[in-house]
Amino acid sequence: MSAPVAIVTDIEGTTSSIAFVRDVLFPFARRHLAEYVATHGQRSSVRQCLSDARTLAGEPALDDVGTVALLQRWLGEDRKATPLKTLQGLIWADGYARGELKGHVYADAARALREWSERGLRLYVYSSGSVAAQKLIFGYSVEGDLTPLFSGYFDTTTGPKLEAASYTKIAQALALPPGDILFLSDNVAELDAARRAGFGTACLDRGEASIPPGHGHPTFHDFTSLDPFARVP
Ligand SMILES: CSCCC(=O)C(=O)COP(=O)(O)O
Ligand SMILES: [Mg+2]
User: Fold this and answer.
1) Which of 37, 138, 196, 212 has a Cα-to-Cα distance from 189 of 20 to 30 A?
2) Ligand 1 proximity of 12 Cβ (cutoff 6 Å)
3) Both 200 and 165 in a single domain?
């Protein structure tokens, strides 16, 4: 593809380490979930998450304790269910605000995002983590507040990351032809979906995820070796 106008990036495994999400963020949510629901369960945002989780599970009669158990199970399965992701974001907000969490972002990713933004590329995020959680990981990051670099954020409320239609919606929201957008991810199934929608793609293989060979997406070990202004085959 020729140089993109916009870059849409995944977070976990792409800008940020899988280990941070798996070993820090998810256990933090798991530890605080029951207490958070007990304390904030009357807030409309929390009630909505609980109700949406019950609907999604097809178990409308579950009480709050049962719903917390359901959410804990989904957490263990890494289910990308919107109510779980929304609730995780609310719980992490407290952790970031108290200084107990600091968002991991690779130094090479922060450096490249700054440079690409300075050079006029429009930058966006598309992650299964909620938009609120995305703003937190980049806002309270070990590389400083990176949120000014981004022009917008997309999560599972736009659609699942494995469906081409989600990327079509993102292109429409950006008012750009799909061919002007480069999507970065460590997940081949996501990259395949983006490619089906007409996006350019780049696979980040940081050695943390097992990425099957032969997928055909241009592959980079980090952001330093990825030059979006060079022609990507
Ligand atoms: C926004 S940080 C937490 C990431 C998260 O919850 C997640 O499920 C990772 O999804 P991604 O689409 O960034 O791989
Ligand atoms: Mg990922």
Assistant:
1) 138
2) yes
3) yes
Output the pLDDT for position 158: 98
**Does one domain contain both 86 and 118?**
no
- Residues sharing a CB contact under 8 Å with residue 71, sequence separation 6 or more, in sequence order: 33, 53, 83, 84, 87
User: What is the CA(135)–ligand 1 centre distance, in A?
Assistant: 12
Positions of E strands within 88-206: 122-126, 150-154, 181-185, 200-204
Q: Average pLDDT per run of 10 along the chain, which is 233 residues long? A: 93 98 97 97 96 98 97 96 97 97 98 98 98 98 98 97 98 98 98 98 95 95 95 57
The total number of structural domains that make up the chain: 2
Owner of token pair 């981004």: 150
Q: Which atom of ligand 1 is nearest to the CA of 133?
A: 1
Does residue 169 sit within a domain? Answer: yes
Residue 108 beta carbon below 6 angstroms from any ligand 1 atom: no
Q: Which domain holds residue 196?
A: 6-16+103-220
The ipTM is: 0.97
In this structure, is residue 225 part of a structural domain?
A: no
Signed CA dihedral, 11, 15, 18, 22: sign only: negative
This prediction has a pTM of 0.95
pLDDT of 141 reads 98
CB 109 within 8 A of CB 223: yes
Residue type, 153: Y
- 138 and 201 in a single domain? The answer is yes
For ligand 1, pick from 8, 9, 10, 12 the residue to mutate: most ligand atoms within 8 Å of CB.
12
Ligand 1 touching residue 134 (CB < 6 A): yes
Same domain for 216 and 107:
yes
Binding site membership of 191 for ligand 1 (Cβ less than 6 Å): no
Does ligand 1 come within 6 angstroms of the Cβ of 131? no
